[in-house]
Design brief:
The complex is a heterodimer of chains A (409) and B (421).
Chain A (H helix, E strand, L loop, with lengths): L17 E5 L4 H11 L3 E6 L13 E2 L2 E2 H5 L4 E5 L5 H13 L2 E4 L5 H4 L4 H7 L4 E6 L14 H7 L20 H24 L3 E6 H8 L1 H10 L16 E6 L2 E6 L3 H10 L14 H6 L1 H12 L4 H11 L3 E2 L4 H5 L2 H6 L2 E6 L3 E6 L4 E2 L17 H7 L4 H9 L10
Helix pairs in contact in A: 1-7, 7-8
Chain B lengths: L2 H4 L8 E5 L4 H11 L3 E6 L21 H5 L4 E6 L4 H11 L4 E4 L5 H5 L3 H7 L4 E6 L14 H7 L20 H24 L3 E6 H8 L1 H10 L16 E5 L4 E5 L3 H10 L14 H6 L1 H12 L4 H10 L4 E3 L3 H5 L2 H5 L3 E6 L3 E6 L4 E2 L17 H7 L4 H9 L3 E2 L1 E3 L10 E3 L1
Parallel strand pairs in B: 1-2, 1-4, 2-3, 4-5, 5-6
Antiparallel strand pairs in B: 3-13, 7-8, 8-9, 10-11, 14-15
Helix pairs in contact in B: 2-8, 8-9
Chain lengths: 409, 421
């Protein structure tokens, strides 16, 4: 711990909470990583074979994929074969020590493993049991396998993303997986608060489907109010104009006119002061009504000069504008080191590594990695010992391939 | 009514003074309200929250769809913060608040007299949440925070879209909405801490930090390989085949996220000969032979329609989906079964729908307790609760320090509708 300083001053309101983490891939690990960032002790249960699938997705740090490393800090890993009765017994023993259990199996698997919410919550009414799934645990679609991409298509997000006549596009940063993890963390925190006051546990469900639908709340609202389908608009916005990408002499610029005051400033900056009070364009509602005309007008003006010209001019005029950055350029922004969003830590295999912090700054305190993302099964022995297993039992489970990473001492 | 029947309201008794607007702040306070908090939305006296004026509109065109979608379960107080009396009113409301939320441009809140130190001096133990584009410190903190700007500036747009194509915006403002969620997480964490220590916290969330968190694994990849992630259309840089394929009639999404699913896909799509081919056996193999894998699978999928593939692949347990339009999704029995849509009565617009908080607790139904408020609908109630007299309030209305919503006289609007006065 001492290797990664800056921890003690942080907000750790979950430092008395034990989380049994039966998740893999993205949504579940994000949820538990942020609980860990808030001080919870997270025990990640993995199978004895290859472990979390994301360990095997390139590029790699040693044996582990970058995506695994990005969302599994501050956790310990235990490897158990849950197909064996002893493995299941071990997981039930761990569940009995846990305040929070998070699982993201396919619907029905917790029954097979003997750890369904009904049973565990009957044994321990204080337990907060969280299920993360693609389509929810009930309803006609509950058994469908789900991945981010599938839900982006299925929920209509893809139908509103991209150019009007272009092919379907995937939103590349997995917003559904990640935000489902966030919603689950929100629900768990809310449930912990209730438990603090009433002693009562909870069953919390979050799903990619619910997250996607929530993201589409105002598209849904528009559809309900107007009966008009949201369309693909490339970079543009259905309710604001001009608010999109424009072609400039040497590339693209994003311009966001979010108020009528900014429209006035933009007209001045573009040398078209006559347009600001033109009744076709005066208010945002006017401009949305005359969408194509407004866009054409701005487009004609901005294409005459290069990006740098417009960025300087718009910045001076207070008009929100941005270049289309790439991630490498973003990560070199001094803002990120200064704000503490990039954390530095030592990894046993990868050496000096960086990670993206929990995106809430608390009293301006530094954020830090307490534990690097665990190696597969790294903490199997110590976790079993904490759960009451004697040394010979642990050795026996290891010998039988029930605990510990297969093929490793 | 028993606590159970009322639903999951762990924030009952928590009061939120909400000076947020547009999307990030209202998303945060709507979540808090959905969890039971008493949210007092403080709006300017003129036109209120900007999104009230953004089309499309419900009914008579007073409130836009975006406003309606993120402001349920709140009360609205319309106050002119440019007046000393207006600021004193907010100060008085602060005296009973647990959470103070603001999303003004850098510097504004200090000028109004509600910066963190000022607020904390009046209300020790307050949990103060500052929502901004780039955070309250650092070289970019003066820049305005619009979701689309941050999508571009953060690199998210740099990885979205077709290679060589126009910039494409993720059209549901993920940075605004998720920044609101991060604020919720920070608040819930800080509330638990306050329960134990009595101390408040100063919380900062920003669209920029949210974008960074979304890019955590892309950043990790860049740090490891030195290769900037590129636009990949519908594809994924670390998984294959995981993208849109052209079927006989339209596109279908295929998500092969594990080697087990690859085996199933091969069996279902007549690719058995390739299931254990060393070029394709593991995901790492397939990513290495990305184009060959996509060509192999694409050639198969082209031979049948989307409907046929959905049936075949679903039966085989291979994740897949047609590209549904939003209205098709809203009509799914599954959406109704899961309680994702809540219906309620709005005093002006009649029957409206709303998307629930995407969290279900103990299998309970989620409900709209209060419709999105009319501007200033609760000014009177809230100020009376805060101990001001009717005479004072009337005087302020007269001098436009506050605005109150009032019932529309019979015959001049739909029954029970509320008019801004």
């Amino acid at each position: 711990m001492a290797a990664n300083p800056g921890v003690s001053a942080s907000m750790m309101p979950l430092d008395d909470i034990v989380v049994l983490d039966l998740t893999k891939m993205m949504a579940g690990p994000i949820c538990t990583q942020y609980l860990a960032d808030l001080g919870a002790e997270v025990i990640k249960v993995e199978d004895t074979g290859i472990g979390d699938d994301m360990r095997n997705m390139p590029p790699f740090v040693g044996d582990d994929g970058a995506m695994f490393v990005a969302v599994n800090r501050n956790k310990r890993s235990i490897a158990l074969d849950l197909k064996t009765p002893e493995g299941q017994a071990a997981v039930r023993a761990l569940a009995r020590r846990a305040d929070v259990l998070v699982e993201s199996y396919a619907t029905g698997v917790t029954d097979r493993l003997g750890i369904p919410p009904g049973l565990l919550r009957a044994e321990d009414p204080r337990l907060i049991y969280c299920s993360i799934s693609g389509f929810g645990r009930t309803g006609p679609l509950a058994k469908r396998p789900a991945y981010e991409l599938i839900l982006q298509a299925f929920t209509g997000i893809m139908s509103v993303t991209g150019e009007a006549d272009g092919p379907p596009l995937r939103i590349a940063f997995s917003p559904l997986d990640q935000t489902t993890g966030i919603h689950a963390a929100t629900g768990i925190l809310a449930a912990i608060r209730r438990r603090d006051r009433t002693g009562e546990g909870a069953y919390v469900e979050a799903s990619l489907l619910d997250t996607a639908t929530a993201f589409l709340a105002w598209h849904a609202q528009s559809w309900w109010e107007t009966g008009e389908l949201p369309r693909r608009m490339g970079s543009a916005h259905g309710s604001l104009c001009p608010y999109q990408a424009f072609r400039v002499a040497d590339g693209y610029i994003l311009i966001a006119v979010g108020s009528d005051r900014l429209w006035g400033a933009l007209c001045d900056a573009l040398g078209m002061p006559g347009m600001r009070d033109d009744p076709r364009f005066r208010t945002n509602a006017d401009r949305v009504r005359h969408f194509a005309e407004t866009v054409a007008l701005v487009q004609q003006a901005v294409v005459r000069h290069p990006l740098a010209h417009w960025l300087a001019l718009f910045e001076a005029a207070g008009i929100p504008a941005a270049p289309v950055n790439t991630i490498d350029r973003l990560l070199s922004e001094p803002q990120l080191e200064q704000s503490g969003m990039i954390m530095h830590y030592q990894h046993p295999v990868g050496g000096a590594m960086r990670a993206i912090a929990y995106p809430v700054a608390i009293d301006g305190l530094p954020r830090a990695v307490r534990r690097p993302p665990p190696l597969h099964g790294e903490h199997t022995d110590e976790i079993l010992a904490e759960a009451g297993y004697a040394a010979d039992d642990i050795a026996r489970l290891r010998g039988a391939g029930i605990a510990g990473r297969r093929g490793r001492p | 009514m028993s606590a159970k029947a009322e639903g999951f309201l762990p924030l009952r008794g928590v009061r939120v003074l909400d000076l947020g607007k547009v999307l990030a702040g209202p998303t945060c306070s709507q979540c808090l309200a959905d969890l039971g908090a008493d949210v007092i939305k403080v709006e300017p006296t003129g036109t209120g929250d900007d999104t009230r004026g953004w089309p499309p509109f419900a009914g008579d065109g007073r409130d836009g769809a975006i406003f309606l979608s993120v402001n349920r379960n709140k009360r609205s107080v319309a106050v002119d913060l440019k007046t000393p009396e207006g600021r004193e009113i907010v100060g008085r409301l602060l005296d009973t608040a647990d959470i103070f939320l603001e999303s003004y441009r850098e510097g504004t809140i200090d000028r109004l007299g509600f910066g963190y130190e000022q607020v904390r001096a009046r209300r020790p133990g307050i949990i103060y949440v500052s929502i901004s584009g780039y955070g309250r410190t650092g070289p970019l903190s003066d820049l305005p925070g619009y979701d689309m700007m941050l999508q571009a500036a953060s690199g998210i747009m740099g990885i979205t879209g077709e290679k060589g194509g126009m910039p494409v915006r993720s059209p549901f403002s993920p940075l605004d909405q998720t920044t609101g969620l991060w604020a919720v997480i920070g608040i819930l964490a800080a509330l638990r801490e306050r329960d134990r220590t009595g101390e408040g916290r100063f919380l900062e969330v920003s669209l920029f930090d949210t974008a960074m968190a979304f890019l955590a694994y892309s950043a990790q990849t860049w740090w490891l390989t030195g290769e900037p992630p590129r636009k990949a259309g519908s594809g994924h840089e670390s998984l294959c085949p995981y993208q849109a394929f052209q079927a006989a009639d339209d596109y279908i999404m295929l998500g092969v996220g594990s080697d087990r699913l690859w085996q199933r896909l091969c069996a279902a799509a007549g690719l058995d000969a390739y299931a254990d081919d060393p070029r394709y056996r593991t995901n790492a193999d397939r990513v290495r032979n990305f184009e060959a894998t996509v060509a192999l699978v694409g050639d198969r999928l082209r031979r049948k329609t989307v409907a046929e593939w959905v049936a075949i692949l679903t039966a085989a347990g291979v994740p897949n989906a047609p590209i549904n339009p939003v209205e098709t999704v809203l009509a799914f029995p599954h959406v109704a079964d899961r309680g994702i849509v809540q219906s309620y009565q709005h005093p002006r617009y009649g029957a409206l729908n709303s998307i629930s908080i995407p969290l279900r607790t103990d299998g309970q139904d989620r409900r709209v307790r209060m419709p999105p408020p009319m501007l200033g609908e609760h000014t009177q109630d809230v100020l009376l609760e805060a101990g001001f007299t009717s005479e004072q309030i009337d005087d302020w209305v007269e001098r436009r320090v506050v605005a109150v919503g009032k019932q529309v006289p019979a015959g001049s609007g739909p029954p029970g509708s509320v008019e801004q006065g």
